[in-house]
């Protein structure tokens, strides 16, 4: 956790109810430390807090979900909206055995890192967690978050044996997302009689599946916002219903929009609860009229009772099956379900760092596990002797092959299957990797894959991660298996959220050589 925030001693203008220098604690409130608290509170300093009671606490850190952390009477409380270095009056909402949750009632002292969130629905929407924190402070906190995980979970000696670099941030950290995935619901025009008032769409409120309707999202590309607005309008005019999670009825579940930042190409994906679309011809015509630059209109069918957005069946309603975009001069074909990083400029920074860590001279054999549609593989292929990519999703492998051909890259091969199954077979076939690159999902690497890496003994391992905790866990396994973590670079792929991407370099230990 970041303990570097300091209380503001200046004006008390930011936040609510602050005074210069933080002011005095009001004796009618309970306090988490001695001095100004009542005798009763002082006597109960080690006792659990009570639900619905108010306490003044010092915020000393942030959780991985962006909640402030403080202690009342020695008891840990998580406070949504509070920042390290702040002193806050909070009301306890829920008490568990070792911690509780509290509501921020009033800031007695504000952090110099606090800013006014520019988004008008920030407090309701769960899409961003850190808009009340300055961007510079976010970058510092994300690095510290990585350090804390490497130390606590990985048991690694950070800043002595391992260099953790400052987080690579953005010059303009707004409007960076090239993909929107927006759940759709129904508005109620008349609460009394429950009459449907048309389609709404936005992100879920924090910790719920209640949709916060929105017309603009400050981290989305402007064209994504326009597409969602038009889909809601056209669908409402045509009487299209939204999927209801409780009843399982209704048609439209999500609207997914993909925008090519370099090419300007646009794909609209309608995720539906069933194959039949009422007024389909009119709907397609309406989308094309409202969005004349659209290149692809796709339907994905998902009839399952699940939180997963996409179903297994995808069909093109109009236009191309794919759109194209470019990263660092490499062209990619992107289908409706392709995994493609949502922040193009930061993706280039991340992948360039991965290539740098691979230490390629042009002769190396590289294996890219979890290769997806071949994004990292093609970056590597420009400097490696040969690249082998493996991915469990067959459609992604077909995209990867197409992307290699699209760019005239002949030294990259791709195969569908489990990394822990395919890579050992490659080894038996005589493929010896000098470098193995992994870019797993949030759950981290499969244990069998880690074992495979250790047995194959490549000179270098480059680990790209979207989850500091599973990164730390897996680095510990690799360290115990004969590797040494050299350095880690955090990359801010998702400004204003708590998420941070990382790329780590590991080399074979000298004793294991």
TrEMBL record:
<keyword id="KW-0949">S-adenosyl-L-methionine</keyword>
<feature type="active site">
    <location>
        <position position="466"/>
    </location>
</feature>
<dbReference type="Pfam" id="PF05958">
    <property type="entry name" value="tRNA_U5-meth_tr"/>
</dbReference>
<keyword id="KW-0479">Metal-binding</keyword>
<feature type="binding site">
    <location>
        <position position="391"/>
    </location>
    <ligand>
        <name>S-adenosyl-L-methionine</name>
    </ligand>
</feature>
<keyword id="KW-0808">Transferase</keyword>
<protein>
    <submittedName>
        <fullName>RNA methyltransferase, TrmA family</fullName>
    </submittedName>
</protein>
<feature type="compositionally biased region" description="Gly residues">
    <location>
        <begin position="14"/>
        <end position="24"/>
    </location>
</feature>
<dbReference type="InterPro" id="IPR010280">
    <property type="entry name" value="U5_MeTrfase_fam"/>
</dbReference>
<feature type="binding site">
    <location>
        <position position="439"/>
    </location>
    <ligand>
        <name>S-adenosyl-L-methionine</name>
    </ligand>
</feature>
<keyword id="KW-0004">4Fe-4S</keyword>
<keyword id="KW-0408">Iron</keyword>
<dbReference type="InterPro" id="IPR002792">
    <property type="entry name" value="TRAM_dom"/>
</dbReference>
<dbReference type="Pfam" id="PF01938">
    <property type="entry name" value="TRAM"/>
</dbReference>
<feature type="active site" description="Nucleophile">
    <location>
        <position position="466"/>
    </location>
</feature>
<dbReference type="GO" id="GO:0070041">
    <property type="term" value="F:rRNA (uridine-C5-)-methyltransferase activity"/>
</dbReference>
<keyword id="KW-0489">Methyltransferase</keyword>
<dbReference type="InterPro" id="IPR030391">
    <property type="entry name" value="MeTrfase_TrmA_CS"/>
</dbReference>
<dbReference type="InterPro" id="IPR030390">
    <property type="entry name" value="MeTrfase_TrmA_AS"/>
</dbReference>
<feature type="binding site">
    <location>
        <position position="370"/>
    </location>
    <ligand>
        <name>S-adenosyl-L-methionine</name>
    </ligand>
</feature>
<feature type="region of interest" description="Disordered">
    <location>
        <begin position="1"/>
        <end position="36"/>
    </location>
</feature>
<dbReference type="GO" id="GO:0070475">
    <property type="term" value="P:rRNA base methylation"/>
</dbReference>
<feature type="domain" description="TRAM">
    <location>
        <begin position="48"/>
        <end position="106"/>
    </location>
</feature>
<dbReference type="InterPro" id="IPR012340">
    <property type="entry name" value="NA-bd_OB-fold"/>
</dbReference>
<dbReference type="GO" id="GO:0051539">
    <property type="term" value="F:4 iron, 4 sulfur cluster binding"/>
</dbReference>
<comment type="similarity">
    <text>Belongs to the class I-like SAM-binding methyltransferase superfamily. RNA M5U methyltransferase family.</text>
</comment>
<dbReference type="InterPro" id="IPR029063">
    <property type="entry name" value="SAM-dependent_MTases_sf"/>
</dbReference>
<keyword id="KW-0411">Iron-sulfur</keyword>
<feature type="binding site">
    <location>
        <position position="341"/>
    </location>
    <ligand>
        <name>S-adenosyl-L-methionine</name>
    </ligand>
</feature>
């Amino acid at each position: 956790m970041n303990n570097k925030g300091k209380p503001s001693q200046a004006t008390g203008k930011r936040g609510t109810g602050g005074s210069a220098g933080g002011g005095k604690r009001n004796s009618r409130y309970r306090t988490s430390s001695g001095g100004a608290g009542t005798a009763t509170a002082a006597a109960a300093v080690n006792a659990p807090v009570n639900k619905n009671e108010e306490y003044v606490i010092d915020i000393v850190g942030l959780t991985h979900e962006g909640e402030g952390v403080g202690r009342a009477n020695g008891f840990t409380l998580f406070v949504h909206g509070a920042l390290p270095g702040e002193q806050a009056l909070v009301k306890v909402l829920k008490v568990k055995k070792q911690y509780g949750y509290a509501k921020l009632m009033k800031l007695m002292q504000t952090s110099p890192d606090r800013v006014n969130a520019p988004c008008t629905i920030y407090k309701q929407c769960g899409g961003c967690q850190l808009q009340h924190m300055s961007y510079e402070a976010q970058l510092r906190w994300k690095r510290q978050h990585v350090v804390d995980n490497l130390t606590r979970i990985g048991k690694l000696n950070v800043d002595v044996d391992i260099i953790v670099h400052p987080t690579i941030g953005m010059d303009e950290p707004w409007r960076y997302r090239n993909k929107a995935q927006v759940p759709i619901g129904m508005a109620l025009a008349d609460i009394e009689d429950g009459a449907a008032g048309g389609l709404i769409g936005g992100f879920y409120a924090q910790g719920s599946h209640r949709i916060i309707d929105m017309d603009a999202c400050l981290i989305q590309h402007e064209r994504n916002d326009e597409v969602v607005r038009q889909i809601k309008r056209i669908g409402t005019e045509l009487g299209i219903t939204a999927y209801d999670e409780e009843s399982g009825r209704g048609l439209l579940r999500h609207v997914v929009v993909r925008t090519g930042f370099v090419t300007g190409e646009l794909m609209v994906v309608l995720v539906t609860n069933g194959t039949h679309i009422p007024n389909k011809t009119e709907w397609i015509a309406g989308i094309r009229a409202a969005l004349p630059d659209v290149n692809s209109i796709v339907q994905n069918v998902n009839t399952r009772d699940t939180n997963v957005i996409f179903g297994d069946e995808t069909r093109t309603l109009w236009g191309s099956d794919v759109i194209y975009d470019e990263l660092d001069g490499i062209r990619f074909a992107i289908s409706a379900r392709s995994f493609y990083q949502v922040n193009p400029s930061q993706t280039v920074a991340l992948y360039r760092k991965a290539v740098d860590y691979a230490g390629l001279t042009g002769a190396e054999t590289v294996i890219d596990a979890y290769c997806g549609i071949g994004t990292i593989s093609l970056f590597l292929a420009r400097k490696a002797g040969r690249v082998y990519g493996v991915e469990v999703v067959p459609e992604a492998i077909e995209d990867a092959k197409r992307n290699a051909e699209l760019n005239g890259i002949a030294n990259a091969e791709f195969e569908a299957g489990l990394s822990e199954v395919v890579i050992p077979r490659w080894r038996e076939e005589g493929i010896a990797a000098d470098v193995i690159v992994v870019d797993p999902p949030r759950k981290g690497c499969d244990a069998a894959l880690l074992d495979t890496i250790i047995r194959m003994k490549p000179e270098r391992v480059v680990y790209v991660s979207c989850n500091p905790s599973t990164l730390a866990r897996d680095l510990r396994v690799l360290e115990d298996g004969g590797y040494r973590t050299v350095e880690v670079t955090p990359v801010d792929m998702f400004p204003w959220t708590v998420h941070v991407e990382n790329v780590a370099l590991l080399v074979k230990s000298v004793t294991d050589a």
